[in-house]
Specification:
Keywords: Lectin, Signal. By secondary structure, the chain is α/β, with parallel strands linked by helices. It has eleven helices and 35 strands. The strands form seven sheets. The protein has a 19-stranded mixed sheet that branches.
Length: 633
């Protein structure tokens, strides 16, 4: 993992103060005036809005960087970051003087050169400061931009400068937290982002965490930017923070923790980029009686995740890539939402035997075989929302549920068959190659995205007649298709239209919106378009245009849509799409952003402009007339 200097010196603190609360009181106004008087504001960022010659209740809520919620909620916020200029921030203000301002945010980052706070020496990665004033209010000299440079590549002079900046900034944070503790105020939220360079920094971090816990911090967010082999080891005191409601840890090592955990108030636990073992996961989730939200995101040292006995756990998220993971075991009777995202190469077992109230399930990048997938589905009878994405081993999906309301299946490239009986389904999204279907009951509108099939090597397979016929069969089992995107990539002329039309037994299926992307040889355009409009039709027709691939595509498409041979299908009961198309209009070309022209354009105008038109989406209006029945069918 590469670290840049911005990551290593970026420290943000959010300190929320517990006070008696009101709304726009005299104490609030005095508080803000003291803040303003403690700032150097050479560019007038605050003078334009921080005007205290107004006696209207709540007028301070209109000040720049001040947020007030509804009076009934009794909360206000001062946000002083990410200002501070290159000097960071420190400010001579007694937090106890502000009765309804409960959040003080002090930020240090790349958005700088605005306000200068008194009594602080620090830097971002672009300037070195002198004196006791930061931002543009203090003297500085430019030393070059180190923000995107790995410290390992610093020259000697850059390394010296960098260490001085980090040392001065940690001095400020240390002094600020000590001062805050001396005020004996409860700390609502403490967020710290820092990079570790040596053992001294680790001991400082231990001290800061201890100070936050001593001040009964409610929400602790700790992000340590470091290398995997030099991760910060958490102090034991953090597991005795009885006041904590929310704990977020990133870049930390959880090797040894106390036998008894005293996180009695903890409701949310988020662990990201952590080194952790199975026993600690089990202990953390079982000894926090109020835990409702648990997340593991990128971790090391786990082959088996066991989350057992969290009686109030409602939301659980496990995210990789985690190639060593073999098994996930969940026993949480109150669990309602579960998301598992993995990068596992081998198969994995997911056991949710005691999660009968689960309503939302997302599976992404998980190598579940058919048997394991269907066993998992049988354990969650209350499921209402299911997403299956990039599950490479699944070949057959069978779902029968009266409770399921949302279903999404995407990028399961080995999938061969899908069968669902879901009479109360409200939405169905499918993004994959067309497969065999036997859908008994799914009366909701569908949203479909058809792509080429993928071979064993991960390459797209050129579409043939059977690919188009499978797509037509898939569409034929739906009562309503809200949106259909067909993305065809072909390196050779692989589609035989005559073979396709000889196997047609029904008219095209109607869809509300049809979007087509053709990435193929120009010699294949006509046959592919015939195949696409032979399986479905729509009044709203969109074509994705790439000028570098389709130099004359506008002109070709316009000519193709208006040139009709009345005698081309005399011997066939099901005729080609040209016989059913009654009118064709171009409504406009949409960039990948704002529309170039939303008004209808004549065919001649588009043909005249096409050499100069950029990439975009050509919107067309097609009017059709199909017979109610066909002889012989």
């Amino acid at each position: 993992m590469e670290l840049n200097s911005q990551s290593l010196i970026g420290i943000s603190l959010w300190l929320l103060l517990s006070c008696s609360l009101s709304y726009g009181t005299v104490q609030d106004i005095a508080c803000l005036e003291s803040v303003k008087n403690s700032l150097k504001d050479p560019y007038g960022y605050l003078n334009s809005s921080w005007n205290f010659n107004n006696d209207t209740e709540g007028f301070i809520c209109k000040f720049t960087r001040v947020e007030c919620l509804h009076p009934d909620e009794n909360k206000g916020t001062i946000k002083l970051g990410p200002w501070g200029g290159p000097g960071g921030s420190a400010w001579d203000y007694d937090p106890g003087s502000g009765s309804s301002i409960i959040e003080i945010e002090i930020g240090h980052g790349d958005v700088v050169n605005s306000l200068a706070f008194k009594s602080i020496i620090s830097a971002t990665g672009k300037t070195v400061l002198s004196g006791k004033h930061g931002g543009t209010g203090g003297a500085s000299r430019t030393v070059g931009d180190l923000a995107n440079k790995n410290p390992e590549r610093f020259c000697k002079n850059e390394t010296i400068i960098f260490r001085k900046r980090l040392h001065r900034f940690t001095e400020f944070v240390d002094a600020f937290l000590v001062r805050f503790g001396n005020l004996k105020l409860c700390m609502q939220k403490f967020r710290l982002l820092i990079g570790l360079l040596d053992v001294e920094a680790s001991s400082l971090l231990d001290k800061w965490i201890g100070l936050a816990i001593k001040n009964e911090v409610k929400d602790l967010d700790l992000n340590v930017q470091t290398y995997k082999n030099a991760m910060y080891t958490l102090p034991w005191i953090i597991f005795s923070a009885a006041s904590l409601n929310a704990l977020k840890l990133e870049g930390c090592k959880l090797e040894h923790i106390p036998e008894i955990i005293r996180l009695f108030s903890l409701k949310s636990l988020i662990l990201k980029k952590v080194a952790i073992n199975e026993e600690i996961v089990k202990k953390l989730t079982s000894q926090c009686p109020l835990l409702e939200d648990f997340s593991l995101d990128h971790f090391w040292g786990l082959k088996h995740i066991s989350v057992v006995k969290p009686q109030k756990l409602k939301i659980c998220s496990i995210c990789g890539p985690i190639n060593e993971l073999k098994r996930i075991e969940l026993a949480a009777p109150s669990l309602q939402q579960l998301a598992i995202t993995c990068g596992v190469r081998g198969s994995i077992i997911i056991d949710v035997a005691d999660c009968s109230n689960l309503k939302v399930l997302k599976l992404k990048g998980i190598n579940l075989i058919d048997q394991e997938f269907h066993r998992l589905m049988s354990k969650v009878p209350m499921l209402e929302d299911l997403k299956v994405l990039s599950c490479a081993l699944i070949e057959r999906i069978t779902i029968s549920s009266y409770r399921l309301k949302k279903l999404s299946v995407s990028y399961c490239f080995k999938l061969k068959e899908i069968e669902i009986d879901t009479p109360n389904l409200l939405s169905f999204y499918y993004c994959n190659h067309p497969v065999l279907t036997s859908i008994v009951n799914a009366p909701c509108p569908w949203e479909l995205y058809f792509k080429n099939a993928i071979d064993e090597l991960g390459n797209r397979v050129d579409p043939d007649a059977q690919w188009f016929l499978n797509m037509k069969d898939f569409l034929g089992v739906s009562n309503q298709i809200r949106s259909l995107v067909i993305d065809v990539r072909s390196k050779r002329d692989s589609f035989n239209f005559e073979e396709f039309r000889n196997n047609l037994s029904s008219l095209p299926t109607e869809v509300e919106k049809l979007r087509v992307c053709l990435d193929a040889q120009p010699s294949s355009f006509a046959a592919l378009l015939d195949g696409l409009l032979g399986i479905c039709y729509s009044r709203k027709f969109y074509v994705y245009i790439q000028q570098e691939l389709h130099h004359n595509y506008y002109e070709w498409l316009c000519n193709e849509m208006v040139n009709i041979d009345d005698n081309c299908c005399n011997s066939r009961n099901i005729k080609c799409w040209r016989h059913y198309l009654k009118d064709f209009k171009i409504k406009g070309l949409h960039f990948y952003g704002p529309s170039l022209n939303r008004r209808p354009l004549g065919v001649n105008a588009v043909m005249h402009l096409w050499p100069k038109l950029p990439n975009g989406i050509l919107e067309c209006r097609l009017d059709w007339c199909f017979p109610k029945s066909i002889k012989g069918f």
